[in-house]
Amino acid sequence: MVVQILKSLGFTVLVSGSLSYFLTNFNITFWSSFIVITVFQIAGWNIFQYIQQRRDREAQTIQEQEII
Fold first, then answer.
1. Which contiguous run of DSSP H or E holds residue 45?
2. pTM of the prediction?
3. Which strand (E) or helix (H) includes residue 7?
4. What pLDDT, in 10s, does the model give residues 11-23?
């Protein structure tokens, strides 16, 4: 579990850092863009998980109705 969290955190930091470093070429400060990109990644992941859970619940409900 801890390894998965560290992998996820490392990937998030790598993506945020890379994009923030790229944006410094356009005179955008590193730390502000790093924070914004990190927040967008976390929000996007939460939205993705919500949609997946909703689809799973709907499929489960349909399957339960078919069984009945």
1. helix 30-67
2. 0.80
3. helix 2-23
4. 999 999 999 999 9
